[in-house]
Structure formats: C-alpha cells, structure tokens
Design brief:
Distance between the termini: 39 Å
Radius of gyration: 17 Å
Structural class: alpha/beta
Largest sheet: 10 strands, mixed
Strand content: 25-35%
Shape: globular
Helix content: 25-40%
CATH architecture: Alpha-Beta Complex
Order of helices and strands: EHEHEHEEHEEEHHEHHE
CATH class: Alpha Beta
Low-confidence stretches: none
Number of strands: 10
Number of domains: 1
Mean pLDDT: 89
C-alpha cells in the first residue's frame, strides 16, 4: 500500500557513475522527511554498483540488463511505495526545496495530479557549473512530481521507445485530462553535456512523428479524458528552448 506523504524518487542509470556523488548531494539537499530512493541500474559496466554500497541514505538498488530508460523507470514505478513519484536522471540536479514546493502544491489542490516547476540548463566549464539558458517549462520528468494515480490512468512509459518516452507519456497525460499545476520556481537543473542521449538528434530521430501519429490515432478512436481539461496543448506542454541559448554564462 502506498504512503500518502512519501515521495518515491526513481533514477534510471546507465554508465553514469561519474555523476553519482553530485546526484547523492542533490537528493540530500531536498531535506524531505519521507523519501524513498530507487536506483535502477540499466546494465551499467562502470563501478556504479560499488558506489551505491556506500550510500549515505537508504537506497534501493535494482540491476537489470540494458533495456533503456523507459523500462528502467517502469521497474522503479513497480517497486515504489510512495503516493507521490518523482524522477531524476543521474546527470541532472534539483534546486533545493523542489520536492517540498511541488508536494505542497499538490496537497493544496487534491484535484491536481501533476505539479511542475521550471527548468534551467547548465554546463560545466573547467569543472565549474554555468547556466546556459533562461528558466523555461517543457517536457522533462525531473521538473515534476506525479501522483501515483497518473500512472494508473495513463499507463507507464513505452518501453519500445529509446528516446522521447517522456514526451509520449506527457501527451497521454494531457489526453486523459490529468490536471497539472505549474509552479513558477526553478525545480530542475538540466545538465547539457556530450553524453546526453538526445544530443544532435532531430525530432524524427527522437520519434516525434510516431508520437504525434499515436496521438492522432487515439483522438480518432475517441479517447475520453478522466477530467474535463480546458488547457490547450501548448500551455500544458510548455515551450522548447531548442537549440538552447549558449549566450548566458551565469554561475549556478
């Protein structure tokens, strides 16, 4: 049975051990009283397993053969016990207070199923972090907190997709009328680096055409929302910063 106040943090990881220490620190900095952390190792060949053994907080480590981030997240959801679910890729960071702000936003309006903060991109230069974008809101699971009910109604992530499974999922949330509350404070610091899975890929390579076709097929099939949702698709999804702004160089 899920706990009403517990947040289950789910992290998929593939050969991401170099980001482990920063990931640990950003979770610790949340200072959330009831946190369940689930790390799904998606077939890594680095020393992630050894690093996890020294975790400073209770951590559930699950290893699976490489099946992609969608499958890893689904395994994490199935293993989780919290009523609220958050995602954090190991190379990204959370702003302090992110989980408290978004959980309070959901608690203040029981009808809302998702709360989402803003995103800001950063990069490292000579070991120092710098912002490389303004704050924005768009598709990134790490910027949101979800009620468990969202996955019960909308389903989990499409394991056949290696890219943009979060895009496909959020469109289904919109179609199903999942009320989303926007919080106008930065939640996620998205790390731009040469190992980003989507770096250099266009919308076709990331499956955008397939996602939109699936959306149209579901609409034609008469998919009905659980709630009447009077939010236009662009307002629900947010705006992309592609390509992101290289001109901003503010220290994080």
């Amino acid at each position: 049975m899920s706990d009403e106040s517990r947040i289950s943090v789910i992290t998929p990881a593939f050969n991401a051990a170099s980001f482990y220490d920063a990931w640990v620190r950003t979770i610790q900095a949340q200072d959330y009283p009831d946190l369940e952390v689930i790390l799904v190792d998606d077939g890594s060949s680095d020393d992630l397993r050894e690093r996890v053994a020294g975790s400073p907080f209770p951590l559930r480590y699950i290893y699976q053969q490489n099946r992609g981030p969608a499958a890893a997240r689904n395994v994490g959801i199935a293993a989780s016990t919290g009523n609220l679910i958050a995602f954090l890729d190991m190379d990204d960071l959370w702003e302090p207070g992110h989980l408290i702000r978004l959980s309070h936003a959901l608690a203040g309006n029981p009808d809302n199923r998702i709360a989402q903060g803003l995103i800001r991109n950063f990069l490292l230069e000579n070991g120092r972090p710098y912002y490389c974008s303004d704050a924005y809101r768009f598709i990134n699971l790490g910027s949101a907190v979800f009620r468990r009910r969202v996955f019960e109604v909308c389903g989990c992530f499409d394991e056949g997709m290696r890219f943009a499974e979060d895009f496909d999922f959020l469109i289904r949330c919109w179609e199903k009328g999942m009320p989303k509350q926007d919080v106008d404070q930065v939640s996620l610091l998205y790390h731009r680096h040469e190992s980003n899975m989507t770096l250099g890929k266009d919308i076709v390579e990331m499956g955008g055409v397939v996602i939109y076709k699936r959306h149209l097929d579901r609409r034609r099939a008469g998919i009905k929302p659980e709630f009447p949702l009077k939010v236009a698709y662009p307002a629900y999804i947010g705006r992309s910063l592609w390509p992101f702004d290289h001109g901003i160089r503010e220290l994080v």
